């Protein structure tokens, strides 16, 4: 056959093979073949707001809101500068539609490169890109003419863990996208001057320039480094990137986290050797030798004054007046000082006054004492929005520089102060002296408000106690949220529960907290596929007072699971006494890298699986555990709250005894919503199909094992939870004394499958053999157990539509509890009487 014929046959075969995949199969079974149009576009989305970005180099958007774009929309950023303000706006926008009378020309880029647009009244830059939150970091065109432009350096490629290049059209996993974003945010910390050793006029004192024009991005973990050598022949300077954990010329780098390159003398035979290391944009361009400020007259032509951009030294008002930025004392290198913390007031030894680069900067002074008892002083301008020596400035609104001690490594002491008056960092107050203070006058002035406060507290306490004793039934009605009366939002939250392991007042305050909580991790109490759970102490007003909480810690690569669970927990309508009480979510930076925390109530009894392993339960215990479990699942599945407010139903999708906690009152609460799914009516069939086959194989319903869920009916997803709940109810029943002989705890299907069975193994048991956990005939001798077993059997029916709903199961347990209360008065303790059962069926 000729080559043309072979090519034609190959083309036909390929088209039949690839084209035979339906759109559903391409997206669900072969995600790498899914089209870009099916991908969700996430972008930063904030209205125009003032920004400190000056339109040079790289700027962050400073926007904390992320939005899901519609259809063909891409991520966009708009930067404007007028005579009065500079603003930044980030959004989603259709690239086919003009924005502010301009077309977006680079919407397929994976970086947001700002382009100048013509505008008569303002300076206008726009960019657009197609990547997750790609408009969070903005690259300005002015970088093309800048010596440190990305066009003149080797930008490190953003790669996955196997070093496979990630294109903008590939469906990148969430944790890889987060890794790309994190790496992009940190590149400016590792952008350094790089030059081979070259002769220099630097004499090894004062402040010298590297005189190097080459810049590049360092590898991971590397920092900026400078080396100055002086021999009998010449002096040289070398600048580079280097890993601080590795020796350089036989020496270790000691100050690699500093923002400035402070030269330190190293031992060397036949030459004078100084080294410095730092972490900041081009920070090894300025070499700071000790003594640069001790003798201001010694500063040579190599020295650069802090402010070189005169346009930023003042602010122009609308009336034409010009206001200079704040002036502060400046010690650009540590200066030995005689100041001591025992003094009330001390003057720093700095002699240079500088004008701050930005109107937002304040005056700062830093006093330090090292292990050798040497005390030094730093003074400078600093932006209080940025950390200084790993600490945030918390007193910069003061007119005085009040020194406060900061936590440091063992053997080191540091005091820091900040203030907002010009030259206010000259006088340093180690303790504030209050003059003419009379303790007796102060005490007398405090007596009236203290008396009023005590009277109010006593009155309120008496009112609560008397009202509760007088009308206990009415009190209970108002404390519970029912759908028969109009309920307020406060009652709907349902966390004002005496049985909760953490106070509701504390919980309400935490939900609105924007700062990291003072939490001390205690012991590891659990470990799962995605996270570890710790018992922890939440510090209160004093170190002696604390609340016990649980902290679920997700590693950096499990951001997606943390985000999903956080969003589920954040739904105000989820709150219920049988759902784990959520306090807050946090992003934390630790020595091990970035972590994601979920902080919840702590339940000392642990999860249901461990509890059943350790305890045998009574018939009352079965009713408590089973009924509360059913009520929790019913609330999760419901489309309204107990108060009648609309609620989006949620399916758990990983319901099992290890994902259920036991509270102190021996009721259950559901937890671990990392795989949960909102049953939003707006979701399409394709959206539901792409949700995947998730959960634990042992607890998967037959239709989940077979991947045959009815996507046209959202109730089908709820029935998968009902099947899993039936297996948990079987576990609870198997450890109840009412069944007769109680054996050691076994999970569902026990020894029929291995400890962690795979999906194929469960298919053989559940689909092929139609197997279910064994219900022994002796169990049915107890009338109550017989009712429970009938409920379990109806819940794990092979046909999803034949199963009971979670609400129906909850109602059955409520009826059994009511009958059990009747039996306490008229029937035996061990059985629900047959005549009682007959009455309920009539």
From TrEMBL:
The chain crosses the membrane at residues 440-463. InterPro entries: Kinase-like_dom_sf, Prot_kinase_dom, Protein_kinase_ATP_BS, Ser-Thr/Tyr_kinase_cat_dom, Ser/Thr_kinase_AS, Snake_toxin-like_sf, TGFB_receptor, Transforming_GF_b_rcpt_2_ecto. GO terms for biological process: apoptotic process; cell differentiation; cellular response to growth factor stimulus; heart development. SUPFAM superfamilies: Protein kinase-like (PK-like), Snake toxin-like. Pfam families: ecTbetaR2 (PF08917), PK_Tyr_Ser-Thr (PF07714). ATP binds at residue 552. One of its GO terms (cellular component) is plasma membrane. It catalyses: L-threonyl-[receptor-protein] + ATP = O-phospho-L-threonyl-[receptor-protein] + ADP + H(+); L-seryl-[receptor-protein] + ATP = O-phospho-L-seryl-[receptor-protein] + ADP + H(+). Residues 1-19 form the signal peptide. GO terms for molecular function: ATP binding; metal ion binding; transforming growth factor beta receptor activity, type II. Residues 519-819 form the Protein kinase domain. It is found in: Cell membrane; Membrane raft; Membrane. Gene3D superfamilies: CD59, Phosphorylase Kinase, domain 1, Transferase(Phosphotransferase) domain 1. Its EC number is 2.7.11.30. It is a single-pass type I membrane protein. It is an enzyme of class 2 (transferase). Its cofactor is Mg(2+); Mn(2+). Keywords: Apoptosis, ATP-binding, Cell membrane, Differentiation, Disulfide bond, Glycoprotein, Growth regulation, Kinase, Magnesium, Manganese, Membrane, Metal-binding, Nucleotide-binding, Phosphoprotein, Receptor, Serine/threonine-protein kinase, Signal, Transferase, Transmembrane, Transmembrane helix. Belongs to the protein kinase superfamily. TKL Ser/Thr protein kinase family. TGFB receptor subfamily. PANTHER family: TGF-BETA RECEPTOR TYPE-2, TRANSFORMING GROWTH FACTOR-BETA RECEPTOR TYPE I AND II. This is Serine/threonine-protein kinase receptor.
């Amino acid at each position: 056959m000729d080559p043309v014929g072979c090519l034609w046959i190959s083309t036909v075969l390929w088209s039949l093979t690839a084209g035979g995949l339906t759109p559903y199969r391409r997206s669900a079974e072969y995600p790498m073949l899914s089209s870009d149009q099916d991908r969700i576009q996430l972008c930063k989305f904030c209205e125009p707001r003032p920004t400190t970005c000056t339109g040079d180099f790289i700027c962050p958007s400073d926007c904390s809101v992320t939005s899901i774009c519609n259809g063909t929309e891409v991520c966009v950023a708009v930067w404007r500068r007028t005579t009065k303000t500079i603003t930044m706006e980030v959004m989603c926008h259709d690239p086919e539609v003009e924005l502010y009378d301009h077309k977006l020309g680079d919407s397929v880029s994976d970086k947001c490169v700002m382009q100048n647009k013509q505008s008569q009244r303002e300076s206008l830059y726009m960019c657009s890109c197609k990547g997750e939150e790609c408009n969070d970091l903005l690259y300005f065109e002015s970088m093309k003419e800048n010596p440190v432009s990305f066009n003149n350096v080797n930008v490190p490629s953003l790669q996955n863990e196997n070093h496979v290049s990630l294109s903008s059209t590939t469906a990148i996993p969430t944790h890889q996208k987060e890794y790309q974003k994190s790496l992009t945010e940190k590149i400016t910390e590792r952008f350094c001057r790089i030059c081979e050793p070259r002769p220099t006029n630097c004499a090894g004192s004062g402040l010298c320039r590297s005189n190097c024009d080459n810049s590049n991005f360092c590898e991971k973990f590397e920092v900026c480094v400078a080396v100055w050598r002086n021999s009998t022949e010449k002096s040289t300077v070398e600048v580079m990137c280097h890993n601080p954990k590795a020796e350089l010329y036989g020496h270790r780098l000691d100050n690699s986290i500093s923002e400035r390159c402070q030269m330190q003398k190293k031992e060397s035979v036949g030459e004078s050797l100084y080294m410095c290391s730092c972490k900041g944009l081009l920070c090894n361009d300025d070499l700071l030798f000790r003594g640069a400020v001790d003798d201001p007259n010694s500063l040579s032509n190599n020295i650069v004054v802090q402010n070189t951009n005169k346009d930023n030294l003042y602010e122009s008002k609308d009336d034409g007046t010009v206001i200079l930025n704040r002036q502060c004392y400046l010690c650009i290198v540590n200066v030995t000082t005689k100041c001591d913390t025992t003094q009330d007031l001390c003057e720093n030894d700095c002699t240079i006054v500088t004008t701050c680069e930005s109107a937002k900067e304040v005056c700062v002074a830093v006093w330090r004492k090292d292990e050798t008892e040497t005390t030094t002083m730093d003074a400078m301008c600093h932006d209080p929005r940025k950390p200084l020596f790993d600490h945030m400035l918390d007193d910069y609104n003061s007119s005085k520089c009040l020194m406060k001690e900061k936590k440091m490594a063992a053997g080191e002491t540091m005091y820091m102060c900040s203030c907002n008056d010009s030259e206010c960092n000259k006088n340093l107050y180690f303790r504030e002296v209050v003059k003419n203070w009379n303790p007796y006058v102060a005490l007398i002035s405090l007596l009236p408000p203290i008396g009023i406060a005590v009277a109010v507290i006593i009155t309120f306490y008496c009112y609560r106690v008397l009202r509760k004793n007088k009308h206990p039934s009415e009190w209970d009605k108002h404390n519970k949220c029912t759908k028969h009366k109009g309920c307020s939002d406060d009652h709907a939250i349902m966390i004002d529960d005496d049985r909760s392991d953490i106070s509701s007042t504390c919980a309400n305050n935490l939900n609105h907290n924007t700062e990291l909580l003072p939490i001390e991790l205690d012991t590891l109490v659990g470990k799962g596929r995605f996270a570890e759970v710790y018992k922890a102490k939440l510090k209160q007003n004093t170190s002696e007072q604390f609340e016990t909480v649980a902290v679920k810690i997700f590693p950096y690569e499990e951001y997606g699971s943390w985000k999903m669970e956080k969003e589920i927990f954040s739904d105000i309508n989820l709150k219920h006494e049988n759902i784990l009480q959520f306090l807050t979510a946090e992003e934390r930076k630790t020595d091990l890298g970035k972590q994601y925390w979920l902080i919840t109530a702590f339940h000392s009894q642990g999860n249901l699986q461990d509890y059943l392993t350790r305890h045998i339960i009574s018939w009352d215990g079965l009713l408590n555990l089973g009924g509360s479990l059913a009520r929790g699942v019913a609330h999760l599945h419901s489309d309204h709250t107990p108060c009648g407010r609309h609620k989006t139903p949620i399916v758990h999708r990983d319901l099992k005894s290890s994902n259920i906690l036991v509270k102190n009152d021996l009721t259950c609460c559901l937890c671990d919503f990392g795989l949960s799914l909102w049953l939003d009516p707006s979701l399409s069939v394709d959206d539901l199909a792409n949700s995947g086959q998730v959960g634990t194989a042992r607890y998967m319903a037959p239709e989940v094992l077979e991947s045959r869920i009815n996507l046209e009916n959202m109730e089908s997803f709820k029935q998968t939870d009902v099947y899993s709940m039936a297996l948990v109810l079987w576990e609870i029943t198997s450890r109840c004394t009412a069944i007769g002989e109680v054996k050691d705890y076994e999970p569902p299907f026990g020894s029929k499958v291995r400890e962690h069975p795979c999906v194929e193994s469960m298919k053989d048991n559940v689909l092929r053999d139609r197997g279910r956990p064994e219900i022994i005939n002796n169990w049915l001798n107890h009338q109550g157990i017989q009712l429970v077993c009938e409920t379990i059997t109806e819940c794990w029916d092979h046909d999803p539509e034949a199963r009971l709903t979670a609400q129906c199961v909850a109602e059955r347990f409520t009826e059994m509890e009511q009958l059990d209360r009747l039996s306490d008065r008229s029937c035996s303790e061990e059985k629900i009487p047959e005549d009682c059962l007959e009455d309920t069926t009539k």
